[in-house]
Amino acid sequence: MTYFQQGNFTATVFILVGFPGMDAAQFWLAFPLCFLFLVAILGNCTIIYIIKVERSLHEPMYLFLCMLAAIDMLISLSTMPKMMAIFWFKSTSIAFDACLVQMFCIHSLSGMESTILLAMAFDRYIAICYPLSHTSILTMPRIAKIGLMAVIRGAALMAPLPIFIKRLPFCRSNILSHSYCLHQDVMKFACADIKVNIIYGLIVIIFAIGVDSLLISLSYVFILKAALSLTQEARLKALGTCISHICAVFLFYVPFIGLSMVHRFSKTHGSNIHIIMANVHLLVPPVLNPLVYGVKTKQIRHRIARAFNRMMH
Prior knowledge:
Elements: E1 4-5, E2 10-11, E3 13-15, H1 23-53, H2 60-89, E4 93-95, H3 96-129, H4 134-137, H5 140-158, H6 160-166, H7 183-186, H8 195-228, H9 232-240, H10 243-265, H11 272-296, H12 298-312
Antiparallel strand pairs: 1-2, 3-4
């Protein structure tokens, strides 16, 4: 296989890695990875199914949760199967165009997830600060428009990333640092000026992920201010509805921001910290989000228990 066309120095394939220095253990690491993949798919499918069939859950918070579960499931499908192929079958190569497609899927889905998390924060803000207006503000058509906006925003913001990579010549190493294609990883192997890639990447992080996280934080400032004016029982009940969302926010933003900072400021490219942060960012939220919401949401928990009891009998 020719990895680079020597005439125009254009990459034809990239090599993905698992965990450097752990070649012998990677075959066995694929088993827990497969288990996590099954948990992510089963958990998010369960969340979507329960919200669909349980009419009492046709409320803004749960409809946004359904969107979040669908995005998490797509993230798992775009990353985990290739990772298992790397660990089990040593299928480390990925075609250049396939790498760009995977890159677009990962980044655009992450952008969509950020938008949905912001929408969920807005829902909690309206529900706690303006409870009498909640149903009139977040109507079904508006919820559908927010979901559509999340898709368009994520796709539009991230579409330039593979286009910017496509125009670059590659004449250096084609061995990437992760088990999947990330823009900030691929661009470092170009043998041309990547200022446009760096600047646009920073714009996306600051004006999309940064703004979303700032607005989420601001919404919780108003939520806490409103909750403090309630009785202790009402305060605990109101804040209790936010716990699952707060967990989802931390599961998404902390690894995402950490990975971005490590890629931009760490001098050790391809180090274990890069790999750990990247895997946590993409593998942990799809697995833990349905578990967190399943445990903390009484309606979902009871519906799962009823379905399990029917299966047992």
